[in-house]
Write a structure and sequence with these properties.
The complex is a heterodimer of chains A (572) and B (122). Chain A is an alpha/beta fold. Helix content of chain A is 40%, strand content 23%. The longest helix of chain A is centred in the C-terminal third of the chain and has 79 residues. By secondary structure, chain B is of the alpha+beta class. Helices cover 34% and strands 20% of the residues of chain B. Chain B has five helices and four strands. The chains are: A alpha/beta (572), B alpha+beta (122).
């Protein structure tokens, strides 16, 4: 009819994600073509559109099936929680199975599809339907002769549907070169959605793409989607930009000395942390510490395990004194253990999104990340990680990823591809020294905080990961028995030094005593001399006094007139 | 011919099942369109030629009884349904190709109408 391009009215599908990428749903009052190969979910998508329309948006619908009987359809969607019988009873949905058997039909002249129109029209009118699904109308081509008449009639049918004002979904099988085998896209030109079911590396992924949406903007990418017990969910998970809010809040890693290395306070909340290392370096143990610490803070943790089962992880972590079972019982920790080969990357991502949206965790652990890496799909894994990190950051969820690296000197290189979205990267490595392997840890990078540049040895003890003191020898960090030797040597040296000090102290003491003895001897000698001298002085003075007195007496005796200064005896 | 007979048709069919060789033919139309009219005229002619005295035609107008389209799985108009004898046959179109109608009704295999078929015109 007349296209209202200014603002196209839309009919919401109620399917998670689909309304987002179509900007509100399918074009209202127009037919939409959904095409795809067998088994990619066309019927289900159409059915969900109808059921959600009937239950959520008060738009009753007619489902005209050309391939499955109403009983089959009812059974098929019952597993998704759609009770079609109940909906039919409440006049929300009409199911009409159109059976065409080519062998029963003989064509004997001109015909038209008025019968179909009347049937559909009757069904629509009986419940005032707003939505119609024709699944799969191409069956007409195999069931009825004379394609020319059919094409003309289909054209008329779609025009008629528009006139009826119903929002219709027409499904079609994917053709070799065209979108549909019978070229239905020629008739339905308003909105075309292609579903795809691709298998890469033996894992299948369903994808959806809006090829065309006349009069509306729409997402043009391929979006992976998921069919599970709650129907179809589609996640528009391409990076939407880098506008996540950040926080300065820090969270502990659960290992105090590691927090010390990370500027004394641990990770940033909402940051992405990569723990990479060779086999058996304790990646999962570190992860368990983080999980334990988060749960202790009362936060929720979602643990995606791709190599070990939940029970195995819990058992193993008990050996280092971390009881994860407790947190599972408190519903703070949830394990999602799947095999990487169980689905494609996209599907895993979609599943993870779904699980995260459902569990609402504050911390997400992916252990290990690189079990997704098969052959040369590193760029895809990186893209996946990028999107996952992006998603986590938007939600302020701390992401912890472990990554198994192959041994040798290329540890950093193999991980370069996936490291760029990572904020904090801890590298665990086994250090070979003196005929033994020991575990070492260092922080390769940690954005936005002062962090230690030291290589630290750590031990896995029965009470968790324990970081040791650093001993740097001529060939780098000393670990294991080398460290123990070094510790012993240092202890011995210290002892020696202590003895030396004591010895010196004693000597000093002795010298002081010696000196003091000398001093006292000299003092004694001096005192004697002093006494002698003082006595001498006294005697002299006494003699002088006596002499003076004698002279005075003599003068008195001689009656000298004046006491003369002259020495006595002169004039005498 | 008479659409009102349509409702009682299924029950009738059961009764006549035991009766030997009475054909029950049902013609679905949608209003009095030229195609429908042509089909009815052609059908009448063929029956008279090949099944004289042992046939019954019910005409069902879907415009009046749209709910009946579902029962016999009617899509195309006009559609002729051979209810009896079993198995059910469906013939679509205005029945202008007599030969194909006869094939569709399994009448050509019978010796009765074999030669006539090609000569019939209407």
């Amino acid at each position: 009819m007349t296209p209202a391009r200014a603002q196209l009215p839309k009919s919401p599908t109620g399917i998670v994600g689909l309304d987002e990428i179509t900007g509100g749903g399918l074009p209202k009052g127009r037919p939409t073509l959904i095409c795809g190969s067998a088994g990619c979910g066309k019927t289900l998508l159409a059915m969900e559109f109808l059921v959600r329309g009937a239950t959520q948006f008060d738009e009753p619908g007619v489902f005209m099936a050309f391939e499955e009987t109403t009983e089959e359809l009812t059974q098929n969607v019952a597993s998704l929680g759609f009770d079609l019988n109940d909906l039919a009873k409440h006049k929300k949905i009409v199911l009409d199975f159109v059976h065409i058997e080519r062998s029963e039909i003989e064509e004997t002249g001109e015909y038209d599809l008025e019968g179909l129109f009347i049937r559909l029209g009757h069904a629509i009118d009986s419940i005032h339907a707003k939505r119609v699904v024709l699944d799969t109308i191409e069956a007409l081509f195999s069931g009825l002769p004379n394609p020319l008449i059919l094409r003309a009639e289909l054209r008329r049918l779609f025009r008629w549907l528009k006139e009826k004002g119903v929002t219709a979904i027409i499904t079609g099988e994917r053709g070799d070169e065209k979108l549909t085998r019978q070229g239905l896209e020629e008739y339905v030109s308003d909105c075309v959605i292609v579903l795809d079911h691709r298998i890469t590396a033996q894992a299948s992924t369903r994808r959806l793409r809006v090829v065309k949406y006349r009069g509306s903007i729409h997402g043009t990418n391929e979006y992976p989607f998921l069919i599970d017990e709650s129907g179809i969910s589609l996640l528009p998970i391409t990076s939407l930009g880098l506008q996540h809010t950040t926080t300065n809040e820090r969270i502990s890693s659960g290992i105090p000395r590691l927090d010390g290395m990370l500027g004394g306070m641990g990770f940033y909340r909402g940051s992405s942390v990569l723990i990479s290392g060779t086999a058996g370096t304790g990646k999962t143990s570190f992860a368990a510490h983080v999980v334990d610490a988060a749960c202790r803070r009362g936060e929720r943790v979602l643990y995606f395990a791709f190599e070990e089962s939940a029970n195995q992880i819990m058992r193993n972590m008990r050996s280092i004194g971390i009881d994860l079972q407790l947190w599972v019982q408190h519903d703070l920790l949830h394990f999602e253990a799947t095999r990487p080969s169980f689905a494609g990357l996209e599907m895993h991502l979609t599943l993870m999104h779904k699980a995260i949206n459902h569990f609402r965790p504050q911390v997400v652990v992916v252990d290990p990340l690189n079990s997704f890496v098969v052959a040369d799909n590193v760029p895809e894994v990186k893209a996946m990680l990028m999107r996952l990190v992006d998603f986590l950051k938007q939600q302020q969820i701390t992401g912890l990823f472990t990554s198994l690296t192959s041994g040798g000197d290329t540890i950093e290189q193999t991980d370069v591809a996936i490291s760029s979205p990572i904020d904090t990267w801890l590298l665990l490595r086994s250090i070979e020294l003196g005929g033994e392997r020991n575990r070492g840890l260092y922080i390769l990078k940690s954005r936005g905080m002062a962090h230690s540049n030291q290589i630290r040895e750590f031990l896995l003890t029965d009470h968790g990961v324990e970081l040791r003191d650093v001993y740097v020898g001529p060939s780098g960090v000393l670990t294991g028995s080398a460290r123990l030797t070094q510790e012993a040597q240092e202890h011995a040296a210290q002892l020696l030094r202590q003895q030396e000090v004591d010895r010196k102290r004693l000597e000093l003491q002795r010298k002081r005593t010696q000196l003091e003895a000398q001093i006292s001897a000299m003092r004694t000698a001096f005192a004697e001399q002093e006494a002698d001298l003082l006595q001498g002085i006294e005697q002299e003075q006494l003699r002088e006094t006596l002499l003076l007195r004698e002279r005075e007496d003599m003068a008195q005796i001689r009656k000298a007139d004046t006491p003369s200064d002259q020495p006595a005896g002169g004039p005498a | 011919m008479n659409p009102k007979r349509a409702r009682s048709a299924p029950q009738r069919a059961r009764v006549t099942q035991t009766e030997a060789d009475t054909w029950t033919l049902r013609l679905y139309v949608a209003g009095q369109t030229p195609k429908s009219m042509t089909a009815f005229v052609n059908l009448k002619q063929i029956c008279e030629d090949h099944l004289a005295g042992r046939y019954r035609i019910e005409v069902i107008d879907l415009l009046e009884n749209p709910q009946l389209a579902q029962g016999d799985q009617i899509l195309a108009i006009p559609t002729l349904v051979r209810k009896l004898p079993v198995p059910m046959r469906k013939i679509i179109g205005d029945l202008s190709n007599t030969e194909r109608v006869l094939i569709g009704l399994d009448l050509v295999s019978r010796k009765v109408g074999g030669d006539h078929a090609t000569k019939e015109t209407s």
